[in-house]
Amino acid sequence: MIIKSMSRKHPTFAQLIDYIEGEAKLKSRRYSIHHNLYSRDSAGMKREFEENAERLRARKNGVYLYHEVVSITPSEHLDEHAQKQALSEIVREYLKARGRHNMAYAVLHEDTGNLHCHIVMSSNAVGESRRTRLSKEQFADCLLYTSPSPRD
Questions:
Q1: CA–CA gap between residue 24 and residue 114 (Å, rounded)
Q2: Nearest to 134 by CA among 86, 88, 109, 101
Q3: Apex 48 CA angle, 45 and 49, nearest 5
Q4: Burial of residue 38 (number of CB atoms within 10 Å: 0-12, 13-18, 19+)
Q5: Which pTM was predicted?
Q6: How many of the other CB atoms lie within 10 Å of CB of 46?
Q7: Residue range 68-95: average pLDDT?
């Protein structure tokens, strides 16, 4: 499993949601994850993210959102559906550990050799004015919490 986390200093939620929902990369919304979001359509989600970001205190170089990618290596022992379900479960657990109260939207992409999910995550918890920041150690703990246990 590989996790890549990129922060954005501008509230470009609409641009990122449009990118991850692009038809060239997206085959199905079946495995999409809506974490602390009411809306299920793009316009509603964009509005929710933007309204939540308006609560943030102005800060020079402050982070507004995270674009994260969680990727798994294809398995010869599981069929495609089982792999997609496993990745969805990993992403759900990751979101609980990484930002239990933050807004997040994850979409499965199948445009490369590895299944991967793109995640849009708010930098603040729902309705809060302070950013949720994790130290490197706390972030590493999230990865340990969501990593599958080794098989015996």
A1: 16
A2: 101
A3: 85
A4: exposed
A5: 0.86
A6: 19
A7: 91
Distance CA 16, CA 32 (A): 15
Q: How far is residue 70's CA from residue 146's CA, in Å, rounded to a whole number?
A: 11
C-beta separation of 62 from 55 below 8 A: no
Task: Enumerate helices (H) and strands (E) in the chain, giving the number of each.
Answer: 4, 5
Residue with tokens 């010869």: 76
Closest among 31, 16, 101, 39 to 72, alpha carbons compared: 31
Q: Where residue 135 falls among pLDDT bands split at 50, 70, 90?
A: low
Could you give the 3-state DSSP secondary structure of residue 113? coil
- Distance, in Å, from the CA atom of 110 to the CA atom of 102, rounded to the nearest integer, reads 26
- Cα distance between the two ends of the chain: 18
The two tokens of residue 86 are: 């496993």
**Euclidean distance between CA atoms 50 and 28, whole angstroms:** 25
